[in-house]
Specification:
There is one protein chain. With 248 residues, this protein is an alpha+beta fold. It has 3 domains: 4-58, Structural Genomics Hypothetical 15.5 Kd Protein In mrcA-pckA Intergenic Region, Chain A; 66-130 and 218-242, Alpha-Beta Plaits; 134-216, Alpha-L RNA-binding motif (Alpha-Beta Plaits, 2-Layer Sandwich). The protein has 7 helices and 17 strands. The protein has helices at 7-13, 19-27, 93-97, 120-127, 147-155, 196-203, 235-242; strands spanning 4-6, 31-33, 36-37, 44-46, 52-54, 57-58, 66-71, 101-102, 111-117, 135-141, 158-161, 164-167, 172-177, 183-189, 208-216, 219-220, 230-232. Strands 7, 8, 9, 10, 13, 14, 15, 16 and 17 form a 9-stranded mixed sheet that branches. It has a 4-stranded antiparallel sheet with strand order 3-2-5-6. The radius of gyration is 22 Å and the shape is elongated. 33% of the residues are buried. Bound molecules: uracil (URA). The site of uracil has 8 residues, from helix 6.
Length: 248
């Protein structure tokens, strides 16, 4: 995907005004590109390379962008979809223009921590089972959980269902609350197969009724983010994702 974006669209997506307002700002000569006033609102800008200022103030340029989102239920984890709303639709267009993509996939009904990044290497590290990056999920299920479930998860479940067959890697199940009709637990897995956590619980006879990802590696979801909220990650958070997970 090209990183080029019209100057007016870029300013608008950075929140500097509506498209009409920023066009007026550009015509007035208040915007410089690489140090020179630029009055052409249609000038194609490389958001990662060109330095753009407004009234001498550098606009927030970064060559890579990393977003932490609390993915809400009901939204697809995909770059785009013809019919349904995707996580990229929750972000200003700047992020798609810079090549940001979700690093991994959460099911439509799953909530929680999703990283959206333009850094393909970081995304690969998060997704690839080779890197063993742990993912922690909070799950609510439709019946009791006990010691035998903890042991079965620890041993590595054999999954054989309509989606296919595989041996899941050992996983850590921590029971938060067990009840006859409903239980809550946290589970830490190091792989991300299709419907992984739901299928692991299904192999133990339990249906997941609610699922939320709380952690990726050493990075926890910011609990100030309500479902649907997002923010750019701090450098410290990005480096935490690049580090080994202390829970591993
Ligand atoms: N496991 C699942 O079953 N669903 C998700 O969305 C993530 C992990």
């Amino acid at each position: 995907m090209s990183d080029l974006m019209r100057l007016d669209k870029l300013l608008a997506s950075l929140g500097e005004g509506t498209r009409t307002q920023v066009q007026a700002i550009i015509r007035a000569g208040r915007v410089c590109v690489d140090g020179k006033p630029e009055r052409d609102a249609g000038r194609r800008i490389d958001a990662g390379k060109n330095a753009v200022t407004l009234d001498g103030r550098p606009l927030a340029y970064k060559s890579v962008r990393h977003v932490m989102m609390n993915k809400p239920g009901g939204v697809l984890t995909a770059a785009r979809d013809k019919k349904q709303r995707t996580v990229m639709d929750l972000l200003p267009p700047l992020y798609a223009a810079m090549g940001c993509m979700p690093a991994g996939r959460l099911d439509k009904d799953t909530e929680g921590l999703l990283i959206i990044t333009s850094d393909g290497q970081l995304a690969h590290r998060i997704i690839s089972p080779k890197h063993d990056v742990g993912k922690v999920y909070f799950a609510r299920v439709d019946g009791p959980l006990g010691e035998s479930d903890i042991a079965a998860f620890a041993e590595g479940l054999h999954i054989d269902d309509a989606e296919g067959e595989f041996d899941a890697r050992p996983a850590v199940l921590t029971i938060v609350r067990s009840g006859e009709n409903e239980s809550e637990a946290c589970v830490r897995v190091t792989e991300g197969r299709y419907h992984q956590v739901k299928r692991m619980f299904a192999a133990r006879g339990r249906k997941v009724t609610y699922l939320k990802r709380e952690k990726i590696g050493a990075l926890a979801l910011d609990d100030a983010l309500a479902p649907g909220d997002w923010r750019e990650m701090t450098d410290e958070e990005v480096s935490r994702l690049e580090q080994e997970d202390s829970d591993a």
